[in-house]
């Protein structure tokens, strides 16, 4: 009987685990409110290369000019070394803020920010125009699952 009690206890524990709520996931930024957007593009920036930063900004600007800003949803997701674009001292700051003013969204990966804080002991600053997302790659996945085309200039 003792063996049966152990098995029943293990089954009860397994059932409790199986029926418990899934682990909570950090929220990602909701999709942009662009009801008239006919085109949706997510631009990935994961490099701290000034040429790539300029290319991402250029692509976003070109899309906003080619399509009416209301007709295109543009989202830049910066993670890893790519978050350098969103630092206050970055020379492209005004260009990024201009894109946001035109309706683009620029996301910054908080996992990267947290990692830098652990490594340096100081939380890196980033511009107010940046939208914080917990996981940059998860934001890209969310966007592509919702009709966005991923472009990595």
From TrEMBL:
InterPro entries for this protein: DsrEFH-like
Signal peptide: 1-26
Record keywords: Signal
The protein's name: Sulfur reduction protein DsrE
Organism: Bradyrhizobium ottawaense
């Amino acid at each position: 009987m003792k063996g049966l009690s152990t098995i029943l206890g293990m089954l009860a524990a397994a059932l409790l685990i199986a029926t418990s709520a899934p682990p909570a996931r950090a929220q990602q930024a909701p999709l942009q409110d662009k009801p008239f957007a006919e085109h949706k593009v997510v631009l990935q920036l994961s490099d701290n290369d000034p040429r790539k930063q300029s290319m991402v900004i250029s692509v976003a600007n070109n899309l906003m000019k080619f399509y009416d800003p209301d007709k295109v949803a543009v989202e830049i997701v910066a993670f890893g070394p790519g978050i350098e674009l969103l630092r206050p001292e970055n020379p492209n700051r005004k260009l990024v803020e201009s894109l946001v003013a035109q309706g683009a969204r620029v996301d910054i990966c908080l996992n990267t920010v947290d990692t830098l804080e652990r490594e340096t002991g100081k939380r890196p600053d980033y511009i107010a125009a940046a939208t914080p997302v917990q996981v940059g790659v998860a934001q890209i996945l969310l966007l592509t699952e919702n009709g966005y085309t991923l472009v990595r200039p």
